[in-house]
Amino acid sequence: MKAGQSIDEKLVNAYKAGDKKALAELVKRWHKLFCNKAYWLVKDKDASKDIAQDSWTVIINKIEGLKEPKQFKYWAYRIVCNKSTDWLRSQTRKRKDTLDYNIELKSDDTKYSENEQLKLMLKKALNELPINQKTVVRLFYIESYSLKQISDLLEISVGTAKSRLFHAREKLKTILKHTHYEN
Fold first, then answer.
1. Buried b (16+ CB within 10 A) or exposed e, 76-96
2. N or C end of the chain, less CB within 10 A?
3. Could you tell me if 115 and 78 lie in one domain?
4. In a domain, 2, yes or no
């Protein structure tokens, strides 16, 4: 193995060369993170575990075709995101209201500090965004991904990522104005 290779790159190359232990190490390094990423997108603990498992099936079947093993993280995350999106679509078809993750605000708002109320309003507003805009907002602002990384992860152009981010911001402004947040 070459000096300067990342751990993942070494493990992918070792697995491609026939080392089954390398796959076990990749699973150990990444499975929990895949579950967390799926949960972050679908907000369903059981589904996120299934999505991570399904993602591993795809990863194992397609890893031989991975041209740049150093890109394993982004490639694998893209698979998890795609599987999560597929799950969300299937749930939407089953029940139109599955994507409704709205936080119910308690009637006694005086319990919350102004900052907590703002957080709740923002979460509620985020939940009203379409899934494609919500995903880009979360990746950009919460995960600190660059627009290029988002475009690679979601297999969209940088322009599309920018557009989704712009439209999400505009929609958030409108939603927050309608909830009487004037600041």
1. bbbbbbbbbbebbeebeeeee
2. C
3. no
4. no
